[in-house]
Design a protein that fits this description.
The structure holds two protein chains of two kinds. Chain A is mostly helical. Chain A has helices at 5-34, 42-60, 63-87, 92-111, 136-140, 145-163, 165-175, 177-182, 187-213, 225-235, 240-263, 269-287, 291-297. Helices cover 72% and strands 0% of the residues of chain A. Chain A is globular and about 60 Å long. Chain B folds into two domains: 4-231, P-loop containing nucleotide triphosphate hydrolases (Rossmann fold, 3-Layer(aba) Sandwich); 249-492, P-loop containing nucleotide triphosphate hydrolases (Rossmann fold, 3-Layer(aba) Sandwich), CATH 3.40.50.300. Helices cover 33% and strands 25% of the residues of chain B. In chain B, helix 13 (369-382) crosses helix 14 (399-411) and helix 14 packs parallel to helix 15 (429-444). Classes of the chains: A mainly alpha, B alpha/beta.
Chain lengths: 310, 496
């Protein structure tokens, strides 16, 4: 069998495409968690983003309105979470789970009218360059703007956390909200902002699924990607670059196991389907096992409510 | 330039407690002021009001005749009031420099230069690029002080700064504070340690139960006069009677060794000692020299070789704490809220944790609440715990009351041996006195004590025999009358 080099390029590009929603949602959740808030509602926010994006695209016909609308929908639903956990001091875990259940339910309800409607084609960038260099071109060119944004995001996130003042404040709040508050930092405001940002990124990840990756609406179409995104944040030890690696491994194995199933490799399907989950976690655990570094990058106040008493 | 800080008629009321009752005070730069009081006297509330963390119900603060509106910590900072809190306000996982730049508006480079200057001037050598969690308590405090100095404060408030410091670090701190004061910074020093007030301060204000009791110059005071003002009654100075020399051996430790897997723990090497009935053996040492490991080995949290501990003619080295208690040993660990009691549980529930087969706290797996409550009430009245609500969660008890409860819980079963570790750490004078009296009483009843403590005065006051632990090794056992605190200090430093 002769392997076409461009075919390899296309496989790599499809792996990267499948990693996009994971990277977006994980990087958003990473900021939320770095501020000390554990939002388990990623799956719910993603699916809300997916249905909002698809519905707005169908109704208004504008892709720009649809993409930003999906992000706004993510922000709105995360505002509920922020209000409950930061203002009413509810438990992060229970509230996040409720958010996911709520998101899945409401998206199915809104989505009833949109099942079976074909999506629109999303414009891609640099399409003319797609055939210039073998192997490299199909990887680099001919993707949507969201794709490029997703692959820049881990680096932007890393820079934001390490080098900017606001990033420092986010880390400080996650490390010790009490100290931050005594330093005159408005802990609640910072956490609200981080939760809303996480919501926006989850919304965008959902919109990518329903508008670009598989342009249609199917009930429950996020299919657990929100949970994978959450797992990536933890197993990457809150490091955006490792999220990128984890998302690529997960996307890669998902695509490859599809191909293996298609070729008819004699390995049980269940095992193949489980493979991406197992391998991703093993790899991330192995590359993140420096306990000192874990201690330094784990937000100490993660999941704990902060209540200013005075 | 002169700085004048005036507190005028400040009142802060919490439900069920008046934390500050119409307090008025005036401070002038060039002097070091002590704010003295027992735990819960209201001094921390007062300085939190000065630093904007707590907003008073009534009253005003004036700095150089200007009325300050302190609604948040940033207001205090803007008005040149710097505060070093008792519990550090640092971000452990951030680097020292990140901790310092976070509330500064300056550029990185200029801030770095400024910090370098401060560190050079006051001899604070700290690596700015390592995470704060790698620093010692003394270094962390220096970071807090630098954070205040960056803003050129007019007022610097130190809340119980020495509670986490070693003696050496304490004297360094005092030197720095005197230097700041000479440079015109107004220093307010909050403490309940009388010796420190005498050593460091020029004027002292004493608070008791939310009220200001007295303001006076240090030269007109002495330790006794201040202690009486602080507690509000004349303290009896307690002295231990010379113990009857008994030769009835109660516990004997033979060739006890402990090797830890944790690099942050100290290994114990070849520990040998014995304690007779009615005796108190004091074990001195600088903290971190194996005291915590020794306590755990003696209490059974760490199991050792069966024959290494002989108690009342039984070998008990391989028994757990519960089993050792059945042989009439009792334990009071160092950390009251982590090891000795469970903060979220009610008083009577904490009492039930120390249960014996004979105490009948449980019937067929069910909790016998009435029995436990009755028992708890007895502890509370016998041991002077200042509450009548046994349903109260233990975390709301003051340190002194909690320690009385713990010691009471251990002693009410009348054990033969009490092992305690820093029993008066962080307590106020009244509570310390009570604990000391109780410990002396135990010895009088011909029961024994092993007292592991970092407080040399306490050891000299209570012990019959003293040994020093250094790097996991015990010095020879000395008679307490032959020992001075200087001699102990030398042994604690590792000399022979």
């Amino acid at each position: 069998m002769i392997i076409d080099i461009n075919f390899v390029g296309l496989i790599i590009a499809s792996i990267m495409a499948s990693a996009v929603p994971l990277i977006l949602a994980s990087c958003g959740e990473l900021i939320t968690e770095r501020s000390g808030v554990l939002n388990l509602g990623v799956e719910g926010m993603m699916i809300i983003g997916a249905i909002s994006g698809f519905a707005l695209m169908t109704v208004t016909g504008s892709l720009i309105v649809a993409v930003f609308g999906a992000m706004l929908a993510g922000v709105l639903i995360s505002t509920i979470f922020a209000f409950l956990t930061q203002t009413l001091i509810t438990n992060h875990v229970a509230t996040g789970l409720a958010l996911t259940i709520f998101g899945i339910g409401i998206s199915a309800m809104i989505g009833k009218n949109f099942v079976g409607i074909p999506g629109k084609e999303f414009p891609v960038l640099f399409e003319s360059l797609k055939d210039t260099i073998p192997l490299i071109s199909p990887i680099l060119f001919g993707h949507s703007i969201v794709f490029y944004f997703a692959f820049a995001l881990p680096f932007i996130t890393s820079y934001f956390l390490k080098k900017t003042k606001i990033g420092l404040i986010v880390r400080a709040v996650g490390d010790s909200p009490e100290s931050a508050s005594n330093q005159g930092i408005n802990v609640r405001l910072v956490r609200y902002a981080c939760i809303l940002y996480g919501g926006a990124m989850s919304g965008l990840a959902g919109a990518y699924l329903s508008m670009i990756y598989t342009p249609q609406w199917i009930e429950n179409m996020t299919g657990g990607r929100g949970w994978i995104a959450l797992a990536l944040v933890v197993f990457s030890t809150w490091n955006p670059i490792k999220i990128l690696i984890g998302a690529m491994i997960f996307g890669g194995l998902t695509i490859i196991q599809f191909h293996m199933q298609a070729i008819g490799v004699r390995i049980p399907v269940q095992f193949l389907t489980a493979l991406p989950y197992i391998v991703t976690i093993i790899v991330l655990v192995v590359i993140s096992r420096d306990s000192r570094k874990i201690r330094l990058s784990t937000p100490s106040s993660l999941g704990k409510s902060f209540h200013k008493d005075n | 330039m002169n700085t004048n800080l005036k507190i005028s008629n400040v009142t802060k009321i919490y439900p069920g407690c008046v934390a500050n009752d119409n307090v008025s005070l005036e401070f002038n730069s060039g002097k070091i002021y002590a704010l003295l009081g027992e735990n819960g006297a209201g001094k921390s509330t007062l300085v939190k009001i000065l630093s904007g963390v707590i907003i008073p119900d009534e009253g005003k603060i004036y700095l150089n005749e200007n009325n300050l509106n302190l609604n948040s910590p940033s207001d205090a900072k803007k008005n040149d009031i710097g505060m070093v809190f008792q519990h550090f306000n640092l971000f452990e996982t951030l680097s020292v420099f990140e901790n310092l730049i976070i509330d500064s508006d300056e550029q990185r480079e200029s801030l770095r230069e400024k910090i370098d200057l401060i560190m050079k001037k006051y001899n604070f050598p700290i690596d700015l690029d390592i995470p704060v969690l790698n620093l010692s308590a003394g270094q962390k405090q220096k970071v807090e002080i630098i954070r205040c100095l960056i803003r050129n404060p007019k007022v610097l408030i130190m809340d119980e700064p020495t509670s986490v410091l070693t003696e050496q670090e304490t004297s360094e701190l005092f030197l720095s504070l005197k230097k700041f004061s000479e440079e015109g910074i107004l220093i307010i020093y909050i403490t309940h340690k009388l010796k420190e007030v005498m050593k460091l301060c020029d004027e002292v204000a004493v608070m008791r139960r939310g009220k200001l009791v007295s303001v006076s110059e240090i030269k007109n005071e002495n330790i006794e006069s201040l202690a009486n003002k602080m507690v509000g009654q004349n303290l009896k100075t307690i002295k231990k009677k010379k113990a009857k020399t008994s030769s009835d051996q109660l516990i004997k430790i033979t060739n006890l060794n402990f090797t830890s897997d944790d690099p942050f723990e100290t290994n114990l090497m070849d520990i040998n000692f014995s304690v007779n009935r009615g005796e108190c053996l004091g074990i001195a040492g600088i903290s971190g020299n194996g005291q915590s490991e020794l306590f755990q080995v003696l209490s059974g949290e760490i199991i050792s070789e069966k024959k290494s501990i002989e108690f009342n003619n039984n070998y008990i080295g391989d028994l757990n704490p519960q089993e050792r208690r059945e042989y009439l040993m009792a334990f009071s660990p160092e950390d009251r809220l982590e090891q000795a009691a469970i903060p979220q549980m009610k008083i009577f529930e904490n009492v039930a944790l120390n249960n014996f087969k004979s105490s009948n706290f449980f019937n067929n797996g069910l909790i016998n609440e009435n029995k436990i409550k009755e028992h708890s009430k007895k502890i509370i009245s016998d041991f002077n715990v200042n509450t009548d609500n046994i349903e109260l969660k233990s975390q709301f008890l003051s340190g002194g009351n909690l320690q009385k409860l713990i010691i009471g819980r251990e002693l009410i079963t009348s054990p033969d041996l009490l092992i305690c570790f820093n029993p008066t750490w962080g307590l106020d004078v009244g509570a310390i006195n009570y604990i000391h009296e109780t410990l002396i009483k135990i010895n009088d009843q011909n029961k024994s004590i092993i007292l592991i403590s970092t407080d040399t005065d306490e050891l000299l006051k209570l012990s019959d025999k003293i040994s020093v632990i250094h790097k996991g090794k015990l010095s020879k056992i000395m008679n307490a009358e032959e020992v001075t605190s200087e001699k102990l200090g030398i042994l604690m430093g590792g000399a022979n």
